[in-house]
């Protein structure tokens, strides 16, 4: 790269960090990239760190020593995250979203990149300090959520299928009981998709009793993998505590009431905001 003026270097360096979250970048790499002295690079990083933290864009961690460098950690402060989720809750309360069985129509929101970006950043903030190797979700609506979260955590995504795909080779399949309707269903994961003893963050779009998430947890035991966390976009509050199959999870929104006759719903921020 040609030598840049400091103002241009700051812009390019900021973009470089934003596109490589949770990646350790050495001062030498920056010095070589911008043909600048390490002292100048350090001053630039101090400016970027101040702006990131002051504007709530995340943190810039510095590691000292020969093998050190800087690592950008995307984060959203709780107040900004709460404001975002409150807006989402208002949209989810629209009467036309009520579906049979007390579900909400969310596909249009999950298809909006800006909404998924906000949600992914919040999940990434919630699990930033966990030791995670991979993010897992079940097809299909959870996929955008998982990929958005993975973007901010810089991690790969593994997708659990409802049935085995020939193109994925040999797979592990299990039967699980759906927590909401008590039906026995099947899910499978290709053997090559997940390394043994991986630490996995599970992301799901909607949870009633937690049967689908519990199914993924059971599936992970077949890979000797560990659950590093569970994130749920919207949970149902109309499930008795004793019927809930999970206790340790993070939810961003909670459906607390549904009147099928009037189509009136109440959606509030989830447990992430009340820990």
From TrEMBL:
Family: Belongs to the purine/pyrimidine phosphoribosyltransferase family. PurR subfamily.
Pfam families reported for this sequence: Pribosyltran, PuR_N
Subunit structure: Homodimer.
Name under which the protein is recorded: Pur operon repressor
InterPro entries per the UniProt record, alphabetical: PRTase-like, PRTase_dom, Pur/Pyrimidine_PRTase, PuR_N, PurR_Bsub, WH-like_DNA-bd_sf, WH_DNA-bd_sf
Residues of the Bacterial purine repressor N-terminal domain: 5-74
Coiled coil, from the record: none
GO biological process, one term: negative regulation of DNA-templated transcription
GO molecular function terms attached to this record: DNA binding
Domain Phosphoribosyltransferase: from-to ranges: 110-243
Keywords noted in UniProt: DNA-binding, Transcription, Transcription regulation
